[in-house]
Structures are given as C-alpha cells and as structure tokens.
From TrEMBL:
One of its GO terms (biological process) is RNA modification. It comes from Camellia sinensis var. sinensis (China tea). InterPro entries: DYW_dom (IPR032867), E_motif (IPR046848), PPR_At4g14850-like_plant (IPR046960), TPR-like_helical_dom_sf (IPR011990). Pfam families: DYW_deaminase, E_motif. It comes from the Eukaryota. Belongs to the PPR family. PCMP-H subfamily. Gene3D superfamilies: Tetratricopeptide repeat domain. GO terms for molecular function: RNA binding; zinc ion binding. Residues 118-171 form the DYW domain. This is DYW domain-containing protein.
Amino acid sequence: MPCKPNAIGWATLLSSCRVHGNIKIGKWAAESLLELEPQNPASYVLLSSMYAAKGKWDKVAQLRRQLRDTSIRKEPGCSWIKYKRRVHIFSADDRSSPYSDQNYAKLEKLYCKIIEEGYVPDMSSVLHDVELSEKIRMLNHHSEKLAIAFGLIFIPCGLPIRVVKNLRLCCPNAVPNGLSRSFNKA
C-alpha cells in the first residue's frame, strides 16, 4: 500500500473480510483498527459477526465479554417513519408503541405471505447461537420490519413507505422488495 492506512481503510478491510469470511485478515484489520480507534465498537462487532458466521461461538462470547467489560457501547439500531407529521421510531423487539399489537400481527401476516411467495430468510445475519425458530423470530422483529409493518397499516395505499435507518440494513433487498411486490407499494 503506498500510504499508511487510516481507520477508514482498516474498517473497510474489516468489513470486506466479514463479507468474504476471511477471519485471519479480519482479525489483523480489527487489531489495527483498535490501535487507531480503541473506542470504536466496529472492530468488535464485525469480528464477532465473522466468528458467528463460521460457528465459532466461543470467540463470539469472548468478544462480547470484552465489549461489555469496556466502556465502549455499540449504537443500537433503530428505524423511523414519518406519518401525519409525526416521526415514529422503532427498535428491534420494540413493544413500547401503542401500535405494537397491530405491528406484530401485521408482521406475522407479512411473513406468512412472503414465505408463500418463495422468500427464504437469510439466517447469516442472525449472530446468536440459538434455535432456528428463535433466529426467525429475531429476523422478523428488526426495527426496519416493524417500521414497514407500521407503514403498511397506516400509510394509504398507493403512497410510498419511506423508512430511514441509522445503521446498515440487515436484509437490504429481500424483505422490502418482497413486501413491495406483495402489497403494490413503491
């Protein structure tokens, strides 16, 4: 490399290693990123997800303990949607909304509908060593899916549903596109 990599370079390499499952280089990138930015949770989170994808749950637990033992905090994911001049914010497994029961009932119907249409959930984004049914539940209760369900309930048919998320989308195309096709939303 013609120049010394900065934190962005190391984080990019680490993220690429996560995508391609290269733990050896990923560990090196994570250690290098930690040297430059010791308070950046990305090193722990990305390395942990690489280990989880390879089924190395002992390594995942070790990294989670290290993260918990430090003052470093991972920003929780949340999604929001605007409806009638009010912003509605959702986080994973959120039940604080007065519309929670409706949202979860809608999510259950949505999930059944897209499964019938051939959707196969991507379990690789569930980074926990749990049973299949729990992985499916975890996938179905992500913040963006709660926001989409809210939009399908309250936003009039024919209008687009716009969801904003503070982090990377867990399933960038499969579920939103499947829902758009199923419910004729843009």
